[in-house]
Design brief:
about 375 residues; Gyrase A, domain 2; Alpha-Beta Plaits; Elongation Factor Tu (Ef-tu), domain 3; 8 helices
Length: about 375
Amino acid sequence: MDSNLKITPLNAAHIEAGAKMVDFGGWHMPVQYKGIIEEHQVVREKAGLFDVSHMGEIEITGPDAMGLVQRLIANDLGNIVKNQILYTPMCFETGGIVDDLLVYRMDEQKFLLVVNASNKDRDLDWILSNRYGDVEINDVSEQMALMALQGPLAQSILQKLTDYDLNNMKFFFFDKLTLAGVNCLVSRTGYTGEDGFEIYVEPTEARKIWDQILVQGQSEGVMPIGLGARDTLRLEAKLPLYGNELSPEINPLEAGLGMFVKLGKDDFIGKKALTDAKEKGVTRKLVGFEMLERGIARSQYSVYSGDTEVGFVTSGTFSPTLKKNIGLALIESEYNQLGEEIKIAVRNKKISAKIIKTPFYKREAK
């Protein structure tokens, strides 16, 4: 292992479980344990446990905390109550995306921003450079470990560790509770298309919770899951990945995140650029496609309509659920027609694909 790589508090657990470890944005992380397809299917059918302790957490507190967060984000905190969570893009003045993140409303003057691992330092610099008023901004990432339990059996497994009735926790809410005798902050969001929970805990207690979930959930078939299946799961659900579907060169309207951009709220960074873009009409759209011939489309592969280059692939993979090669591409809006055939330049050959409806996978409502 490269001594420069950062490790999570669960690093030893992954190695003991025989995980294949990789360098992921400077972190020593498990890419798979028993295999990406098997792990993917476990999350779709049962439940899987992810170590996401590499994510960043930034706390903003003080009398002007809400005003600052409102200015930083494109979504609107106005109707968000205590213990509720908001998903939002955070934009540059140009409308391009600094990051996409979750805002946890701890109380009237305290907010926790959960940001992408690779962007944490840049996000913190951005927030500090735009700070105003009476606020305190702290990087609290090293003060907490983070796990995610995802899948249709996630609730029944986690319920074994707590007296708290998880039926009372609605989607995109959180609460402080005790799991296996340990004080935790537990939320209900997810990045897989399935029901699931996130568990924030002191780093020294992370291994205890990790082991207890795997022991208590053994009869339900719970397994630890690596980054490989995390990517295939999120792509099937059309959940964006920063650096692929989102970047400083892509605005949230192009990326299909228009519902998370509230142009009617008071001024926020990027509002003018996004308002102008909407009024003029978005020139690029994120579309889903399936391959009609053999081949997997990878990020940055060029997309063609006939002989005309019309965009590029943002993500592509084999879908274990659909048993097809699928992908997302950012293309010129005029070519965004369901059923339209496009070509993907895979190495030196143009491979046929078809634009299809997204998300590729959506769990059945209970």
